[in-house]
Amino acid sequence: MATRKKYIENTDGPAPRDLTDHPFYGLPLDEDQKAFAEAILNPEKLIVFCDAPAGTGKTTVSMGAANLLVQHHEYEGIIGIVSPCNEGRQGFLPGDITAKSEVYFEPFYQAMVECNMNPQTDVCNDALVNQKNGDGLVTLITDTFLRGSNFHKKVVIIDEAQNFTASNLKKTLTRIADDCKVICIGHLGQNDLDSPEQSGFEQYIEHFRADSRTAVCELRTNHRGWISSHADALQF
Questions:
Q1: What are the helix (H) ranges across 137-193?
Q2: pTM of the predicted model, to two decimals?
Q3: Lowest-confidence range among 61-75, 104-118, 129-143?
Q4: 142 in helix, strand or coil?
Q5: What are the residues facing 50 on neighbouring strands?
Q6: Are strands 181-186 and 138-142 parallel, antiparallel or unpaired?
Q7: What gap in Å lies between CA 85 and CA 91, rounded to an integer?
Q8: What is the spatial distance between Cα 141 and Cα 132, in angstroms, rounded to a whole number?
């Protein structure tokens, strides 16, 4: 496989709003992915929801567009949030809080690599209090310890949002000020909660949908290939 040439972004001026002629890290975006990225880059959209199956690139597109906004100095950093839905108390995992959380952050790390970012240098790995304050370019946390947090001037990516209960998604969204950009992504067809009806993802999509400051997007093409897409097609 050929090595993808690293693209160096010219960060003078605002972030791009139209990606028609933008290389986007050398990644070939399909039409759905392009519309999703442009919704994130649109300054009039404060919150962007995306319901998308596995393999559609939702985390990579989210991280790439978020990074463009930060590199163009429109926001001060990126916050990635996941919910350890089957281990609400992370004490079952060994190590300190950073070690306990690492297993949930792998999709973010992979997305960063796809977007020519370096997880070794771009992710804040300091103590929990620094993670909650959002120091560093990319801060990765679980929703378990969000009480008392306040996010300003950040691009906030809520990943696997279908695994947030309605109350946990409310807890997360109410931490976020209007000077942030929110990207809330998940797949309604893959819910890992003990009771899928507890999920707040669809409820919050509908709650925000009618507001002009909201964008609701879908990705439909599984780029991983036949095994992934055929497996996802089985309904049970």
A1: 166-173
A2: 0.89
A3: 129-143
A4: strand
A5: 185, 217
A6: unpaired
A7: 13
A8: 8
List the structure tokens of 142: 């679980």
| Dihedrals phi, psi of 46, to nearest 5 degrees | -85, -30
Going by their DSSP bridges, the two strands 47-51 and 181-186 should be labelled as parallel
Confidence of residue 136 (pLDDT cuts 50, 70, 90): low
Would you state the structure tokens that stand for residue 83, as one six-digit string? 């919910």
Retrieve residue 41's tokens. Answer: 């880059």
Share of the chain above pLDDT 70, in %: 85
State the pLDDT at residue 12: 86
Take residue 91 and report the two structure tokens written for it: 């004490």
Average pLDDT over residues 154-170: 95
Place of tokens 């519309």: 35
Sort 81 into a burial class: Cβ within 10 Å, 0-12 / 13-18 / 19+: buried
Residue tagged 């004490």 (tokens):
91
Give Cα separations from 18 to 35, 37, 84, 121, 206 (angstroms): 9, 9, 35, 29, 27
Task: Quote the tokens at residue 216.
Answer: 């609701």
